[in-house]
Amino acid sequence: FGDGTYNADGIKAIADAIAVSPSLTILNLSDNNLARETGYVKATAVQGPSFNVGDRVIYQGCEMIVSKGIDGDGEIKMVNFSGVKALAHALRVNPSITVVDL
C-alpha cells in the first residue's frame, strides 16, 4: 500500500468508482490529500467579490475557498473541495460502504 497524492480530478475519479461498486464495504483514503491547497496566487488572477478567509472564489474555472487572505504581495491561498464533494456524494449513493477512513 502506498501513500496517494491525488488532485481533485483523481479524487473525483475514485468517487465515480465508489458510486458504482456495490461490493465495496470498506474505504481507506487516509493517506490522500482530499482537499489540496494552492500555492500563493495573485488575487488579480482570481474572480470573487472579496478575498477573506472562507470566501468562495473562482480560479481557473474551479470554485475554491480562500484559506489565507491577501498578503502584502497581493497574493492569496485557496483550497479546492470539489474532490471532497464528489466523495461525499458517492458515499451517499453507495449504501454498502460500512467503514470509511479519511
Descriptive report:
With 102 residues, the protein is α+β, with helices and mostly antiparallel strands. The chain folds into 2 domains: 1-35 and 81-102; 37-80. 24% of the residues lie in helices and 26% in strands. The protein has helices spanning 8-19, 82-93; strands at 26-28, 36-37, 41-42, 56-59, 62-68, 75-80, 99-101. Helix 1 runs parallel beside helix 2. It is elongated, with a radius of gyration of 16 Å. The chain starts with 7 loop residues before the first helix and ends with a strand.
Question: What's this entry about, in short?
Answer:
The protein has 102 residues and is an alpha+beta fold. The protein has 2 helices and 7 strands, in the order αββββββαβ.
Question: What tags apply to this protein structure?
Answer:
102 residues, two-stranded parallel sheet, alpha+beta, elongated, 2 helices
Helix percent band: 10-25%
User: What's the domain count?
Assistant: 2
How many distinct helices? 2
Question: Average pLDDT value?
Answer: 87
Oligomer: single chain
The helix/strand class is: alpha+beta
What is the tally of beta strands?
Answer: 7
Strand content: 25-35%
Q: Topology as H/E string?
A: HEEEEEEHE
Described by strand count, sense and barrel closure, the largest sheet is: 5 strands, antiparallel
How far from one another are the termini?
A: 15 Å
Low-confidence residue ranges: none
What is the global morphology? elongated
Radius of gyration: 16 Å
